[in-house]
Amino acid sequence: MSKNNLKDISDLFLDPINQDSINKAIETLLSSIGEDPNRQGLQGTPDRIARMYAEIFDGYRTDPDKLINDALFDVSYNEMVIVKDIAYTSMCEHHMLPFFGRAHVAYIPNGKVIGLSKIPRIVDMFAHRLQLQEKLTSQIADFLETALNPLGVAVVVEGLHLCSMMRGVKKASARMVTSAMRRNFLDNRRTRSEFLEHLQRSSKDML
């Protein structure tokens, strides 16, 4: 990997979102589809969308060092760590329609573990931007590989995409599954199989 620090890996944006420009662009969009942006129901819509974009695209401006916040801990444990069923929402970069689902993340420590709450936050940092599910999956894996230097990282992401539910093929039940395997998970079939077997078990069965 050419990128070698967390800010590079996360593609951190430093400039704030330009809500005034978004406001004007939404007014233009409404007029372009034949709507009246000044009618009662739409008068606040450009501002609401601008504020919404600041929220749902906050991943571009999440500082990864502050996100981790020194939550890396020395351990002798060297078995698999799995965080399953991490709910996420994101926006497709092709049609700017939402996609959503669950992410499953595993790693094998190499002397360090990361705080449990940080893994869902890492997922959100990359999900809260214009995305492709394939890229989202790889970015999560690359970030953890850089942050932890683990013996292995595995990420599986499941997604339902409104761009294929509302338009085009209009298949409401089609689910996309992507994976990224690094180090031991890529090189060792038994390690990979153990992770995938854990994903097959429901959370209810494990508790």
Key terms:
207 residues; alpha+beta; GTP Cyclohydrolase I, Chain A, domain 1; GTP Cyclohydrolase I, domain 2; 5-stranded mixed β-sheet; two-stranded antiparallel sheet; 10 helices; 7 strands; 24% strand
Structure, described:
With 207 residues, this protein is of the alpha+beta class. It has two domains: 15-56, GTP Cyclohydrolase I, Chain A, domain 1 (Orthogonal Bundle); 66-206, GTP cyclohydrolase I, C-terminal domain/NADPH-dependent 7-cyano-7-deazaguanine reductase, N-terminal domain (GTP Cyclohydrolase I, domain 2, 2-Layer Sandwich), CATH 3.30.1130. It contains ten helices and seven strands. The strands form two sheets. A five-stranded mixed beta sheet has the order 5-2-3-6-7. A two-stranded antiparallel ribbon has the order 1-4. A hairpin with a 5-residue loop joins strand 2 and strand 3. Helix 2 crosses helix 3 and helix 5 (118-127) packs across helix 6 (133-148). It is globular. The mean pLDDT is 95.
